[in-house]
Design brief:
The structure holds 2 protein chains of 2 kinds. Chain A is an all-beta fold. Chain A has one domain: Immunoglobulins (Immunoglobulin-like, Sandwich). Chain A is built from no helices and 11 strands. The relative contact order of chain A is 0.33. In chain B, the strands form 2 sheets. In chain B, strands 2, 4, 5, 9, 10 and 11 form a 6-stranded mixed beta sheet that branches. Chain B is globular, with a radius of gyration of 14 Å. In chain B, a hairpin with a 4-residue loop joins strand 7 and strand 8. Classes of the chains: A mainly beta, B mainly beta.
């Protein structure tokens, strides 16, 4: 069964450092997403990406964050200068369509746990 | 603003019984509602989708109902098994006009053998 893969599974970094989280979405999916989950809290939407540009972003996705699709398969999330409160599990997801009558059924990766010290 | 409410207390049931989880929402009329399962340290896994014009949806031991008047969905697992123990998340389309799923906090289900 096709799956979304994420690397690294766990990253520890110092506050102020840049972090790049990587994802390989399902190959025939057109829409890509990043969500995060702080320990014990709900899964929160960060950003969606379609046709090589951001289609939606939440209030959490500020100037410290950026996304990129550097080639035909990878989808990355960059945090420019990490803060303690960025410690969370970051999930990449992809979907075939974008909702409406089709609805968004998301396939998630296993996540990248980010620990900021 | 849109709110999605799921019981934060864990639901403990005996194996073989039916588990019923609740999702309530306010300030929105969603075109559909989704349920996902999340195991500890893992990403959510899609289970079922029900549209606003559907009252009930079934998949194997799973059943979802959707009452747009009450603004509530119920998620049932019949003949529950210890392997069903997980957190179950309700998701609705985002209020921003797109259809990006927004998640509730989830309810933890613990099935005792």
């Amino acid at each position: 069964e096709p799956e979304v893969t994420q690397t690294p599974s766990h990253q520890v970094t110092q506050m102020g450092q840049e972090v790049i989280l990587r994802c390989v979405p399902i190959s025939n999916h057109l829409y890509f997403y990043w969500y995060r989950q702080i320990l014990g809290q709900k899964v929160e939407f960060l950003v969606s990406f379609y046709n090589n540009e951001i289609s939606e972003k939440s209030e959490i996705f500020d100037d410290q964050f950026s996304v990129e699709r550097p080639d035909g398969s990878n989808f990355t999330l960059k945090i420019r200068s990490t803060k303690l409160e960025d410690s969370a599990m970051y999930f990449c997801a992809s979907s075939e369509g974008a909702g409406g009558s089709g609805a968004n059924v998301l396939t998630f990766g296993a996540g990248s746990r980010l620990t900021v010290l | 603003s849109q709110k999605i409410e799921q019981n934060s207390e864990a639901l403990n049931i005996q194996e073989g019984k039916t588990a019923t989880l609740t999702c309530n929402y306010t300030n929105y009329s969603p075109a559909y509602l989704q349920w996902y399962r999340q195991d500890p340290g893992r990403g959510p896994v899609f289970l079922l989708l029900i549209r606003e014009n559907e009252k009930e949806k079934r998949k194997e031991r799973l059943k979802v109902t959707f009452d747009t008047t009450l603004k509530q969905s119920l998620f049932h697992i019949t003949a529950s098994q210890p392997a069903d123990s997980a957190t179950y998340l309700c998701a609705l389309p985002w209020t921003g006009g797109s259809y990006i799923p927004t998640f509730g906090r989830g309810t933890s289900l613990i099935v005792h053998p």
